[in-house]
Design brief:
- Helices cover about 35% and strands about 30% of the residues.
- By secondary structure, it is α+β, with helices and mostly antiparallel strands.
- The protein has a three-stranded antiparallel β-sheet, covered by helices on one side.
């Protein structure tokens, strides 16, 4: 079983990397971009076969390591 975790900065948290990407896109002629938020995607190969147990395990991983829950939010997909 696979899991995909998408981690993004929470709304209201300054995103300097996203702002740098937005500026670079404007410099390249892409004028219609008003804002960019940058995040990360983490894919996990799991030995778990039960989707609910896998989600519970991945949630614990996010809370303990994969996301800084003070400034980041995350979404989990079980594939």
């Amino acid at each position: 079983m696979k899991a995909r975790v998408m981690v993004m900065l929470r709304n209201g948290v300054l995103d300097p990397q996203g702002e740098a990407v937005r500026t670079a896109l404007g410099n390249l002629g892409f004028e219609g971009v008003g804002g960019v938020r940058q995040g990360k995607v983490i894919e996990l190969d799991l030995s778990e076969t039960d989707p609910e147990a896998a989600r519970h395990s991945v949630t614990a991983m996010c809370e303990k390591l994969l996301a800084n829950t003070v400034i980041e939010s995350y979404q989990i997909e079980i594939l």
